[in-house]
Design a protein that fits this description.
- With 202 residues, the protein is α+β, with helices and mostly antiparallel strands.
- It has one domain: Aminohydrolase, N-terminal nucleophile (Ntn) domain (Glutamine Phosphoribosylpyrophosphate, subunit 1, domain 1, 4-Layer Sandwich), CATH 3.60.20.10.
- The chain has four helices and twelve strands.
- The protein has a five-stranded antiparallel sheet with strand order 10-1-2-11-12.
- Strand 3 and strand 4 form a beta hairpin.
- Helix 3 runs antiparallel to helix 4.
- The longest helix has 21 residues.
- The radius of gyration is 17 Å and the shape is globular.
- The model has no long low-confidence stretch (mean pLDDT 89).
- It holds the Pfam family Proteasome.
- Its main location: nucleus.
- One of its GO terms (cellular component) is nucleus.
- InterPro entries: Ntn_hydrolases_N, Proteasome_sua/b, Proteasome_suB-type.
Length: 202
């Protein structure tokens, strides 16, 4: 049920994830940061089976940090990190399949990068993406309103348009999201609690 959307602009890579943690019909947490910061430069969010998500997130973060120190504190590129993650998932498909989807984004010397990796090890590099049930509802919104030259205020407004559709059309009516913006200057975190008028037509 995790709703995730991500996109890149000319100068930034952005990942947005809703903040609730559910178990069956029960809400366990409503302010959970699901977006992991890697090497103080990249962003990653892992969704899927709860056990695989917890184990694989910790494993990936620790392994990438280990590679950083083994490489004399020289961080691999965002593309190298994404491809390394992809290879690990692909190699595990026949032995012990991992039921996760991963969104990986960052800004390095090559500029903003966004990658999505599914549970079969398929890697794509889109300009914007939505994962899980949210993709059925907000990809059309992203198609309509996405611009590559958005500034910070326009990015927030773009995300709110997507949240509005989820609040009105999705059964869970998610409205509390965490947005992380990755630029050459670092990572900025913005919490968005957007509750639109559900009866107002647009």
């Amino acid at each position: 049920m995790d709703s995730v959307l991500a996109f890149t602009t000319k100068n930034a890579a952005v990942i947005v994830s809703e903040m609730t943690v559910n178990s069956d019909i029960t809400v366990l947490l409503n302010k959970k940061d699901k977006i992991v910061e890697i090497l103080n430069r990249d962003l990653m969010v892992v969704t899927g089976d709860a056990g695989d998500v917890n184990a694989h997130t910790d494993y990936l973060k620790a392994s990438l940090n280990l590679q950083y120190f083994q490489n004399n504190k020289k961080a691999p590129s965002t593309a190298a990190c994404a491809n390394w993650i992809r290879n690990g998932i692909w190699e595990s498909v026949r032995d012990h399949p991992i039921q996760v989807k991963i969104c990986y984004a960052g800004v390095d010397e090559n500029g903003p990068n966004l990658y999505t990796i599914d549970n079969y090890g398929c890697l794509m590099r889109p300009k914007y993406i939505a994962q899980n049930y949210s993709m059925y509802l907000i990809l059309s919104v992203m198609d309509k309103y996405y611009k590559e030259d958005m500034n910070k205020e326009e990015m927030i407004d773009f995300v709110k348009k997507c949240i509005t559709v989820l609040s009105r059309r999705f059964l869970l009516q998610q409205h509390r999201f965490l947005m992380k913006i990755c630029t050459q200057d670092g990572i900025e975190t913005i919490e968005i609690d957007h509750q639109p008028d559900l009866l107002k037509a647009e």
